[in-house]
Every structure is written in structure tokens, then in C-alpha cells.
Amino acid sequence: MAIVVISFVFGSMIGLISGLAGGRIDSLIQRVTDVFFVVPSMLFAIAFAAILGPGVDHSIIAIAVCWWTWYARIARDEFIRIKCSPHFQGAIVAGASRLRLIGRYGFPGVLPSLIISAGIDVSNVVMTLSLMSFLGLGQPDPAPELGALVSRSLDSLTMFWWLPIIPAIAIFFICFFANLFGDALRTTLRAR
Fold first, then answer.
1. Cα dist. 124→3, 128, 174 in Å?
2. Does position 192 have pLDDT exceeding 70, yes or no?
3. CB of 71 closer than 8 Å to CB of 7
4. 187 three-class SS
5. What's this model's pTM, rounded to 2 decimal places?
6. Measured at the alpha carbon of residue 114, what is the angle toward residues 112 and 115, in degrees to the nearest 5?
7. 3-state secondary structure of 161
8. How far apart are CA 172 and CA 84, in angstroms?
9. Phi then psi for 156, rounded to 5 degrees?
10. How many Cβ atoms from other residues are within 10 Å of residue 56's Cβ?
11. pLDDT value at position 173?
12. 90: CB partners within 8 A, 6+ apart
């Protein structure tokens, strides 16, 4: 959850700044986010975690470094849509400061899309953390991480099949219910 919150806050701030600034600043920020989009986030996070070494803190940092770009792109695109609206143009004509434009018009307009993305993104973060712990980049042994439990019990798959299957089923249900929550959140926010 910390990964989603860190990425949400940092990415939305960068996206709002990019959308408001426009020009060269927007172009530079978009090229940086494009680099993160070209390389799959999971691969980038695994490589960064391997550089930092095993541990939950390192895994969280590695994933958060790669995950903010999604929120930045959503915030920028939504903010550009809001910039074209009559009430935003009226605020510019009235002489509203840049900080007021972001705080009063930009952020409240982008927030629903960001919340929907964050709700759905929880399952992606769980899968990525499980994969990292499966590969040995999570908490050191004997930590009870689900990916590590699957990895440690693969040797006994033929005799004690339930040892790797039960943590894998737990990962599945966590992701499944996180997706259901994200879909319900999307339906609720879009109905308003």
C-alpha cells in the first residue's frame, strides 16, 4: 500500500506540474516517463531491487521508482483536458495564481481518475512484490512473504503439493479482491 501512496502522490504532482507548465518542461517530463513505459515496470523494478539488494525497504523503493509514471501520465492528461474547460479559462482570466489553478481546479478534477487507477493498481503491486520475493529480492529468510513461501516449497511440490499451492492461491485471492475493489470504486466514482 505504501508503494501506491508514494507513487500516487509523487506521480500526480509531477503530472500536474507537467500539464500546467506545458512547452519544454512538459516535453522533458514526458520523455522521462516514456523511458519508463518502454521498459516494462516489473523488469525495471527487479533490476533496481537487485542493485539495492534484498529487503522489503529496497523492494518498496525499487517499485515506487518505477510506478510513479502511470500516475504522472494520468494526472497530466486529465489536467490538459481540464485546462480546456470554460471554468479553468475563466480562472486564468480572473488572475488566479498557478498554485490556485492546481489546488482549486486541477487536483480535484484529476483525483477521481487517480483514485480509480490506484484502486486497480493494488493487485499489480501485490503481484510485483510477490515476484520479487519469489526471486529472493524480498525479505530474507525465514520471512513469511507469499512469493518466498512459494519459492521455498517448490522442491516439495511432488510430495507435499499444498505447500506452494496455498500461498499462490492466497496471492490470487488478494489480487482478485483488489481488482473487485478497484472496479467497485470506479463504478461508484463514475456514477457521481
1. 11, 6, 10
2. no
3. yes
4. helix
5. 0.78
6. 65
7. coil
8. 42
9. -100, 25
10. 17
11. 92
12. none
